[in-house]
Amino acid sequence: MNAPSTSFGVIRSMSVPRLREMITKTAAIVLKSMKFRDTSKIVTFYSRTFGKLKAVAKGARETKSKFGAALEPMSLVSLVLYKKPNKDLHLISQCDILDQYKNVHVAMERMSVGLAMVELLERVTHDEEENSALFSLVVDCLGVLDKSDKNFQSILLAFEVQMASRLGFGPSLETCLSCGTTLGRFDRKAVGVFKIPQGAVVCPECLQLPPLPGGRMSIEGRKSSMEVFRVLRSFQEKRLELIPSIEYDDATGNEIDETLRLYLRHHFEDLKPLKSTEVFQKLFEEVKGG
Ligand SMILES: [Zn+2]
Fold first, then answer.
1. pTM (2 decimals)?
2. Where are the domains of the chain?
3. How many angstroms separate the alpha carbon of residue 204 from the centre of ligand 1?
4. For residue 215, how far is its CA from the centre of ligand 1 (angstroms)?
5. For residue 269, how far is its CA from the centre of ligand 1 (angstroms)?
6. Thinking of the domain 103-290, which architecture would CATH place it in?
7. How much distance in Å is there from the Cα of 208 to the middle of ligand 1?
8. Tell me: the pLDDT tens digits for 64-79?
9. Ligand 1 center to residue 16 CA distance, Å?
10. Between the CA of residue 138 and those of 89, 143, 206, 247, 255, what are the distances in Å?
11. How many CA within 13 A on the CB side of residue 213?
12. Are 56 and 42 within 8 A, CB to CB?
């Protein structure tokens, strides 16, 4: 009966000494917060160094809290944390505002786009998976949203398609999935198909080929004009500060919105409609209705 004692011995010698919490500093965007106990909050951040993480802000709901407005969603903050190894809830030591994106808060449409971005980021990311490119994207999108005076919706669409790229499944919008021809050469009104599982486009010429086998690929997918793919490609490629200047009509915008929604849902099956979008949709309707 030597074996069991030997294996226990091995386990004991391999066991990790108790790790102590460390104090660490990172830039982060506030995604959301919720009440915790009598006076505190649990805040979810997307941080540059650790990706998404949750931390307790002790006393954050007291009137003279040291945190002030730093824990509001969409704030860019400098965060000092007591980070506990192997725990999913940490403790905030200090949280200072780096940028509040004040203009985002004063206009309803801008705010709905900003809140939709942070809500989406919260839903599609896992705790403590570092992705500094994704952190930079949300910071830059909030910055552009704060400064721009038109086409706010474009910033959300650009955020969605660029987020997909930075998570490793950006759609392929340059060439036809079937024949490899450049999509940019087709008339804007010509119709192609976006194949959602592949995240790629089948060109108008391939759609005219005789049906399978040996002919065209299965055309299951979303039929759209080449204009839709052209604008979507601009959202994917252009520098963010140029995004609000991209012009397109409402039908194209709605089609891109729907295509991206289906595409993201294909990759995140449990992705429900965003709360922020629903709330603002209702508000818009109330405003329009007088
Ligand atoms: Zn083709």
1. 0.88
2. 21-100, 103-290
3. 7
4. 11
5. 29
6. Up-down Bundle (1.20)
7. 9
8. 899 988 999 999 999 9
9. 57
10. 23, 9, 37, 22, 23
11. 0
12. yes
